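Figure-free illustration: sequence to structure, shown twice.
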Amino acid sequence: MDIQSLEVFLGAARIGSLSGAARHLKLTPMAATRRLASLEDELGVRLFNRTSRSLSLTPEGEAFQPFAAEIMDTHEAARQTLQPTAGGATGLLRVTAPVTLGRKRIMPIIHELLDEQPGLRIDLELSDAIVDIVASGIDLAIRIAPMKDSGLIARKLADNPKHIYASPSYLAARGIPKTIDDLAKHECLTFSNFTHWQFLVDGKERSVRVNSRFSSSGVDGFLAACVSGLGLAQLSAWDVKDELQNGSLVPVHIDGASPRDLAIWAVFPSRRQILPKLRVFLDKFQSSLL
């Protein structure tokens, strides 16, 4: 099975465009079309539904996609074994991460990482949605959430302690909450469609209903709202490092209760060999969290 044909297939599936995959792979549109046609002839199935305006995977293409990704990873691992580059990383690494984590903790390491690894390319998708990494052809997802049994492989990278924060102007106007019951009198900023904050009280989880006139689909939204004085927010410690230093936010302590901590996880599509491109990224990222 031709590796370049698989690259065209996976690129087109990920980008949603055969011409886009051709540009990414530095091929002519005709060459990409021929490689895809050759792969479909070899497999005896159509992998895409194609019109003049859209490209979508057929059921056979969806079924084949994870196997194609596995073949590509195995091919890359074999090349790394037979032609090592002094421990260096090569190829394209596709990563997805939450917006604020990506902006504040991943982007600062990218320049140094690419300088250290001249053969490495990185495609970083920042999204607060849970991306289907198998269907999207993603190599690695960084997530901050309780991990559920999903068939994916997860590795804990670091604890992610959370606290409540507010701006000095908000606390001066509305007062400082001391207990969980006091939160009912306050604006508690959170994600869209979330109505509760999670706490640990006497070692047990407790869900507390909160209210706010503002919510956001991402952490960046209610972090900015918190800084502007719109309310209280539960945020990770790394979220507010700069804001604590410049005094735009201060911590708020609730007697007898603490926000439920989460963890930062690396999530992989399957039990593939950890390729050098994954290893160097995770080592650099994990070191930045310490």
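We now fold a second protein in the same way, so the two outputs can be compared directly.
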Amino acid sequence: MIRAHEIESAGDSLQGREFEWTSADFDRVQALIYQRAGISLHNGKHAMVYSRLSRRLRQTGHQSFKDYLSWLDKHDGAEWQEFVNAFTTNLTSFFREQHHFETLAEHLRAQPGRTWKLWCNAASTGEEPYSIIITAIEALGAKAKVHLTASDIDSKVLATAARAAYRLDSLKGVSSQRLHRFFLKGKGSNEGMVKVRPELITAVDFVNVNLIKDNWPFRERFDVVFCRNVMIYFDAPTQRKVLERIHRVMSPGGLLFVGHAENFGESRDLFLLKGKTVYERL
């Protein structure tokens, strides 16, 4: 989901730490994660940073954060993705913020028969994009012409999303009718699991996208964009830059769905508020 970040309190203790850790290390992490992912990491999060990155030190064999960060800064390989992944915690569920899916269904039904291009840019482990596809099929029928691009900055959660397998108890909010129509129940060793039906999976393309980078891989404009609970972790200039880019890849009149704590009233030149945390692209 990018998405919500789990932040420990500033008062968390660092006693008993196994690696050397200084304020200079924190400042460097703060700068690097902002440069790479646009995440504005507030002061007082030393314990969170230490906890998340100490795992990377163990994995890479470095003995101090200074050595790890210096090594990271000199290499442009896969470890950068692991570094970014360390700061993303994905809090998501099927049909989270139900009113958004009701609004989406109304929007789709207003123009039946056309082809729709949708983007979910904080796909996390897949619950949100599959909720979008289910809503589209319910609104337009099984032969709906809908294609969804689902992206995230975290490569690991995208792999989970592409597998489309979930614990049954994580779908408690999904009706029995939807479970029967859109999911396959596991048997034997997969008892207690469900898998999204193949026809839904094929309607989704999963792609790794960093919202603050210029290399978005899109050639056609989107009619609907879900960008929920992402930009609350960006500072104001980064929010504006990302909103401008989203505006450029959307069709006029398209809908932008955002998180319940996000408000873009200062970008009225780009988007007009149309409902509860729903904006129309101007």
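Summary for the second example: The radius of gyration is 20 Å.
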